[in-house]
Amino acid sequence: MLKPKRLFLCILMILCISLGASLTIKAAIGVGAWDALAVTGNNLLGIKVGTIQMILNIICVGIQFIILKREFRIRHMLQIGLSILLGITVNFILYNLLINVELTTYISRLAVFLLGNIINGFAMAIIMMLEIVTFPLEGACMAFARRFDFEFHKVRQYIDIAFIAIVLITFLITKDTLSIREGTVISMLVYGPIMGFFMKRFKPFFQKHDLTDL
């Protein structure tokens, strides 16, 4: 049975991820492959970043439904709620809270970018330990890996490569602002270690207070 304290903490961490993602986008020194796709869509179509993320996430849930069929469960449906919450909060933070924030120096952009990564790594570590819901993209990759007998990490890596390729091709065609820059590389280097650091530090506390089954 889903415990209220776990659910509350999960929702709080989803909001934190929205904040972290918004900060990295606001820094404008490059973002991860998934966010880069959303930022590129925003540049081309004028649709808000959070809305594009919401649409892409719900598509990922649909992919899981098609692949899993009878194995698709209610816990997979929770990803739709997660997608909507993420999209709405990213839009609110980017286009309301941060709209008038000006980052005039590269140092300030880098600092905001690193802060966003720290928040994201912390929140994702907590969500992974809570084991309530999987993010739609990861869920779709896991479903695909199981169905076609691939290794999950390879599928996830290939998806990132495909996203980056789409963004680069779009940039070459449109000559619009490129959302893949040095920040993309920085995220690849620091995100995993940050998440691992917080998981290691908080796991004993979560086990003590029955917040994780790990």
Write the layout of secondary structure elements.
Elements: H1 4-27, H2 33-45, H3 49-68, H4 74-97, H5 106-130, H6 136-148, H7 152-174, H8 182-208
What can you see in these coordinates?
The protein is globular. It has one domain. The chain is built from 8 helices and no strands. The longest helix is centred in the C-terminal third of the chain and has 27 residues, at 182-208. It has helices spanning 4-27, 33-45, 49-68, 74-97, 106-130, 136-148, 152-174, 182-208.
Condensed summary:
The protein has 214 residues and is mainly alpha-helical.
List keywords for this structure.
79% helix; 214 residues; mainly alpha
How many runs of DSSP E, i.e. beta strands? 0
Runs in which pLDDT lies below 50 for 5 or more consecutive residues are none
Largest sheet: none
Q: DSSP helix count?
A: 8
User: SSE order, as H and E?
Assistant: HHHHHHHH
Shape: globular
Give the structural class. mainly alpha
Number of domains: 1
Oligomeric grouping of the chains:
single chain
Give the mean pLDDT.
92
Strand content: under 5%
> Span between N and C termini?
16 Å
Radius of gyration: 17 Å
